Amino acid sequence: MTTSSARSIFMGPRLRRLRRELGLTQADMAADLEISAPYVALLERNQRPVTADMLLRLARTYKIDLTDLAGDGGADHTARMQSILKDPMFSDIDIPALEISDLAVSYPGMTEAFLRLYTAYREEQLALAEQRAPAVKGVVPAWGRGKPDANDPVADVRRFLAARRNNFANLDDAAERLVQVPSGPAGFIERLRLRHNLQVRYLPPSVMLGSVRRLDLHHKQLLLEDSLDTASLNFELAKQLAYLEMEDEIDAALEAGKFASKSAELLARRALAAYAAAAIIMPYSAFAKAVDTRRYDLEALARQFGTSFEQTAHRVTTLQRPGLEKVPFFLIRVDPAGNISKLLDGAGFPFAKHGGACPLWSVYGIFKTPRQIVTQWLEMPDGQRFFSIARTVTAGGGSFGATRVERAIAIGCAAEHAGQLIYTGSGQGLRADEPTPIGVACRVCHRPKCAARSAPPIGREILPDDFRTSSVPFGFSAD
């Protein structure tokens, strides 16, 4: 076998795309390459391989980089396909890895179409899940009927993120290219000055009038509140760089969403810019390596990358790049009143879609021990087990009299992944065989002996109180 034939590859769609980008007909390309037009047609239909000699001829003739022409061999599409085909809906189909690779390499257009279709399917599934509440013995609560509020942009964005497992590889790739320059506040400020002719100025809150960052293009300056802590300052600088230098990638990710309102689209754009900023500060490759080394020690990772606990916890939930996946996490952020202000689910945790959550989960009691990490094993009514890490975080402040907002964050994973976390070997908190029994929400939780219950479950009859008082707030029938 000759060297040329040994290195032959099928790249018909890429060759066709190159020809069209150059504005050539098959006859034009055939003349340029000194081959016949029918042979070009065979190459484009993958009925003939492109030899190493032909690759060199294409590169020389059209002055293009050989690696750009050859591409990555469909590695990214292959990894994404392999990840998607793990979905249980495909479990009865035996698809060899070689077939997946062949499809990704030989038919990238069809592969991309399948990937887009699956993502759209996931979005519709998540939307459908929010339309329905858990039924109990045929009883569907009133708040579970009908479609979700079309004017709920937050829910719209959460579905957008969840359908993509909160991972945007194009933003990670762009961030990896951008961080070849020195990172950190000094490096970002220098890049803003040299590349965008922007001067960074720090102003007191009274002058910023409610803003912590403001781009003043008229005076060529970026204004920042002077009371920001280092992690917040670094994040705002990185976010401004993302808006300036990653606009195309953000727009491309945004175009794939189907938003019900302009508000939802704007919120999604904000979320993508924040994602890009985190990717600049915590590049995927370096951060993924660090989480393995540190065994997901969030405080140690925060010190290593100069980030806050919340920024680090959020970034950990995004490490689901196909082929380079890490532990899938969920994240929730709540205030002392129980209001949820951030929700990311990459671990299949059954978050309540309506009503309150379970007060037995440590995230709701962590305000008693501020800044202290509390671990907890959780067991759902159906037997699912999760491992949770909770801690309070502070937003605002920075000067005397400035408003501070205390919130709690919980980040967790399914029990089967918990052994990879440093927290499960600390000896603190309950053991895996002593999980806290929690529910999604009182109205859909049927645990009969819960002293923390605030409402009876739907579909159960309350027991009379005439002759006995129950030890729980609502005694109800077992059937």
Describe the 3D structure.
The chain is an alpha+beta fold. Among the domains are: 3-71, Orthogonal Bundle (434 Repressor (Amino-terminal Domain)), CATH 1.10.260; 76-148, no CATH class. The protein is built from 19 helices and nine strands. It has helices spanning 3-6, 12-21, 26-33, 37-44, 52-62, 66-70, 75-84, 97-106, 108-131, 153-163, 169-178, 184-196, 205-208, 230-245, 247-255, 262-281, 284-294, 298-305, 309-316, and strands at residues 199-203, 213-216, 221-225, 330-334, 340-345, 374-379, 385-396, 404-414, 436-437. Strands 5-4-8-7-6-9 form a six-stranded mixed sheet. The chain has a three-stranded mixed sheet with strand order 1-3-2. β2 (213-216) and β3 form a beta hairpin. It is globular. The N and C termini lie far apart (74 Å).
Lateral strand order in the biggest sheet: 5-4-8-7-6-9
Please report the distance between the alpha carbons of the first and last residues.
74 Å
The largest sheet, given as strand count, sense and whether it forms a barrel, is:
6 strands, mixed
Low-confidence stretches: 1-7, 132-149
Residues in helices, as a percent range: 40-55%
What sequence of helices (H) and strands (E) makes up the elements? HHHHHHHHHHHHEHEEHHHHHHEEEEEE
Number of strands: 9
**Quick check: average pLDDT?**
83
| Global shape | globular
**Secondary structure tally, helices:** 19
- Sheet-strand content, in percent, reads 5-15%
Class based on secondary structure composition and strand pairing: alpha+beta
Report Rg: 27 Å
InterPro entries: Cro/C1-type_HTH (IPR001387), HTH_RamB (IPR026281), IrrE_HExxH (IPR010359), Lambda_DNA-bd_dom_sf (IPR010982), ScfR_C (IPR018653), TransReg_Diox_bact_type (IPR050807)
Pfam family, one: Peptidase_M78
GO molecular function: DNA binding; DNA-binding transcription factor activity
Organism: Methylovirgula ligni
